[in-house]
Amino acid sequence: GWTPLFLAADQGHEAVVKLLLDTGKVDVDAKEKYGQTPLFLAAYMGHEAVVKLLLDTDKVDVDVKDEDGWTPLFLAADQGHEAVVKLLLDTRKVDVDLKDEGGQTPLFRAAYKGHEAIIKLLL
């Protein structure tokens, strides 16, 4: 199920995410029923500041896969969130060549959606 951190990450409530993280009592890598984490939600919605807060904990798995084999990078690339893609790449912990259950990569998704700036980042 969703936790307060999931809700705050999904809605882009930076101050609430920070407050929750500062307690040290939240599981930043908790998964909901489809295997997605708060980082997935923030990446999907393009909430750059929330993504940065989560990454700054050094406790998130940036390459965690959901039930379809997608990662936060897949979602950000697919949705055209260039700043989020850059933040994820800057961790130097993401595998840009990771394939989902259908054999697609983040580059494939960016190309399919026509996100030229993201394609350049992923090449």
Structure commentary:
Helices cover 54% and strands 0% of the residues. It has 123 residues and is mainly alpha-helical. It has a single domain (4-122), classed as Ankyrin repeat-containing domain (Serine Threonine Protein Phosphatase 5, Tetratricopeptide repeat). It is globular, with a radius of gyration of 14 Å.
Highlighted features:
123 residues, mainly alpha, Serine Threonine Protein Phosphatase 5, Tetratricopeptide repeat, 8 helices
Q: The biggest beta sheet, please?
A: none
Q: How many E-type strands?
A: 0
Annotation field: number of helices: 8
| Helix/sheet category | mainly alpha
The whole-number mean of residue pLDDT values reads 97
What would the CATH topology be? Serine Threonine Protein Phosphatase 5, Tetratricopeptide repeat
CATH architecture: Alpha Horseshoe
Taking the alpha carbons of the first and last residues, their distance comes to: 36 Å
The low-confidence runs, each spanning 5 or more residues with pLDDT under 50, are none
CATH class: Mainly Alpha
Note the run of SSEs as H and E.
Answer: HHHHHHHH
Shape: globular
Proportion of residues in helical segments:
40-55%
Summarize the structure.
With 123 residues, this protein is mainly α. It has helices spanning 4-11, 14-23, 38-45, 48-56, 72-79, 82-90, 106-113, 116-122. It has one domain: Serine Threonine Protein Phosphatase 5, Tetratricopeptide repeat (Alpha Horseshoe), CATH 1.25.40.20.
